[in-house]
Amino acid sequence: MNHKIFLGVVLATTAAAAEAQFVVADTTLTSQNAGANRFRNFGNAGGGDNYLGVNGLGDSNNRVEDSSIHWTKPYSHAFSFVYDVANDRLISEVTYLAAVPDAPITSTLVYSNFLSNVANRVPSVANLDWNALQISLTMASDGNSTPAQFNLRNVKFNGSNLNVTDFFGVLGQTKDWTIQGYNFRNGFSLTGTIELDGAFGSGGDLNAINLGFGNIPGAVPEPFTMGLGIAAAGAFVRRRLKSKNL
Description:
Number of helices: 4
Helix content: 10-25%
Number of strands: 14
Distance between the termini: 20 Å
Strand content: 35-45%
Order of helices and strands: HEEEEEEEHHEEEEEEEH
CATH class: Mainly Beta
Number of domains: 1
CATH architecture: Sandwich
Radius of gyration: 21 Å
Largest sheet: 7 strands, antiparallel
Strand order of the largest sheet: 1-12-8-14-2-3-4
Oligomer: single chain
């Protein structure tokens, strides 16, 4: 390849590496989650409505929970899932409408001592790269539950739009996506709205939104890491050009 052309490709790719993180459809984590957040019980049938903690949220020892949320339908519930590195904690918030008065309320969960809990409860992921965040929507129906809308909308990562901002549930399926191109050990925020409509008569995990971050071998690295490799390639080309001109 012409060295000048190759150097141009390197420079263009370096610029592309600085772009925002991106979503890959139909992909899942290959490890256990390091941290996780689950919104559930959309039929308000009693039990936990929001789980936050480390992998294995079904185990009450691995989570904190809120059982007071009233999932309103139709309604768009604002949510956030945050890894606050500075304070070693996960935070989950969701807004819902109180029955009386008809005004929004924000529920907040905090899961403290996150890193030590990962090391003690899910040691298999403690030393892995945390290079992906999985979004999963499980939308199901039975005799009591016939959801019409079950979506995440206007999703932002660290305050910026992704290449996909709306995630739609499909009746009878679990749909999966991952966010890649970032080192999740650096902390993050995921925000958006949970859009609900229809009958969610059954509770529990029949319909659930799972968010979790962990490892995918070979996931696209964060732009800084990618940029280091590209910069090395660029330096090699410059050395070659310099040697040819001597």
